[in-house]
Amino acid sequence: MNKPRQPLVKSIAQHNALNQNVKKSNPSLIFINTHINGSRLRAMIDTGATHSFITQGAISTLYHSAIPPCDSIAQLGDGQTTLKIVGEVQLFLQFNKIFTPLNVLVVKTMNTDFILGSDWCTKNAARIDYENNQVSIRSSCGRVFIPYHKSIDCLTLDVKSINVIHIPPRESY
């Protein structure tokens, strides 16, 4: 009553070989280019962020009017990191010939100049197409396709540890 296991092993091996040929999603960060007030700005898409953020430094390059003051704090998803919000502004993002208005929170600093959060994604019915490396948004003329690149030419991230880390010196004098 023992059945041979050979066919089962073969079918699993064939299944695994097929899975290796399937394109896997790109887990890296997604940056798209937009124009605001005629200036090009790189935006990081963060579907886990409830709001969109921009730094004061980036706002200053966009020739934007004065920022109405605000004194709030945003807590990030890690539960530890906070961002000081200094104001809120409305921006008009341009993709091809399509303009999308967006209220963004202005912060002093963060790891990237501009984050498009789930507020922007939801409002514009954004879709991330990992296979074709593009993001599409809904417009009155149909969907607008915005390419993104898998390789990021320049990325600097500040990191902050929740725990204290002691790094001993290599040599003692």
In short:
The chain is α+β, with helices and mostly antiparallel strands and 173 residues long.
How is this structure best described in words?
It is a single chain. By secondary structure, this protein is α+β, with helices and mostly antiparallel strands. The chain has a domain at 31-147: Acid Proteases (Cathepsin D, subunit A, domain 1). 16% of the residues lie in helices and 38% in strands. The protein has three helices and ten strands, in the order H-E-E-E-H-E-E-E-E-H-E-E-E. The strands form two sheets. Strands 1-2-7-3-6-5-4 form a seven-stranded mixed beta sheet. A three-stranded antiparallel beta sheet has the order 8-9-10, with no helix packed on it. A hairpin with a 2-residue loop joins strand 1 and strand 2 (39-45). The radius of gyration is 22 Å and the shape is globular. The model is unreliable at 8-13 and 15-26 (pLDDT under 50).
Please give the share of residues in helix: 10-25%
Spell out the helices and strands N to C.
Answer: HEEEHEEEEHEEE
Shape summary: globular
Strand pairing plus helix content: what structural class?
alpha+beta
**CATH architecture annotation of the domain at 31-147:** Beta Barrel
CATH topology (level 3) name of the domain at 31-147: Cathepsin D, subunit A, domain 1
CATH homolog superfamily of the domain at 31-147: Acid Proteases
Tally the helices: 3
Give the overall pLDDT as a whole number.
81
The radius of gyration is 22 Å
* Beta-strand residue fraction: 35-45%
Low-pLDDT runs: 8-13, 15-26
| The level-1 CATH class of the domain at 31-147 | Mainly Beta
Tell me the distance between the termini: 76 Å
- Could you describe the largest sheet, including whether it forms a barrel? 7 strands, mixed
Q: Please give the order of strands in the largest beta sheet.
A: 1-2-7-3-6-5-4
Strands, total number: 10
